[in-house]
Amino acid sequence: MESNGFISRAAGTGKEGVIKAASERPALIILDLGLPDIDGVDVLKKIREWSEVPVLVLSVRDSESDIVACLDAGADDYLTKPFRTGELLARVRNALRHRVSLQEETVFKVRDVQVDLSARTVKKGSEIVKLTATEYALLALFVRNAGRVLTHNYILAQVWGPTFAGESQYTRVYVGQLRKKIEADPSNPKIILTESGIGYRLYIEPEGG
Q: What does the alpha-carbon distance between residue 98 and residue 146 come to, in Å, rounded to a whole number?
């Protein structure tokens, strides 16, 4: 990280990590799940009680249930070991860039689609896209979490409410409807991407266009 221009601080235990996160207020946290005192998911939950700092999980745990648990607990991204340094750096940059853009802008652009959160309007090219209230709520959720993997249960809780947990057919149906309205080719989506068995991720344009 330091050889690529970042200032890093290390914590050897979960308790130490939570204390450092609170006192030093980092721009991003890279979290290992295999800690000697507290499970990494519990560390994540403690941090999420008071902070929305981007958290990227690195772990040898690669089961779908472990990934979903971390994302549901509030992780922004999940990378399994072994990983390529270039991929790690790209995900770090995306997480940081997304948080800055959310603070500075209310208009989000991806490919030929523009979402104005202040005006509550969606355009594809120069044409207004007509969305139902639920479709717009779903798209706005993706925009506010652009680049972050959202699990089915997280989406259901945010858009439909916690009583809809497990009803993943709702997300599949409404994502399908959204894709028909904003994707150039709904059968080969380039904006709302599927994370198999987990949920969805809204595409972020790479740095430099």
A: 7
Burial class from Cβ neighbours inside 10 Å (0-12, 13-18, 19+) for residue 181 reads middle
Cα dihedral 40/45/49/51 (nearest 10): 50
Q: Which candidate, 140, 80, 88, places its Cα nearest to that of 115?
A: 140
- pLDDT digits 0-9 by tens, 173-192: 999 999 999 999 999 999 99
Enter the tokens of residue 83.
Answer: 């990983």
Q: What is the pTM of this model?
A: 0.65
The full set of domains in the chain, from first to last, is 2-101 (3.40.50.2300), 106-202 (1.10.10.10)
Q: Is the dihedral of CA 83, 202, 18, 34 positive or negative?
A: negative
Q: Exposed (0-12), middle (13-18) or buried (19+): which is 40, by Cβ within 10 Å?
A: buried
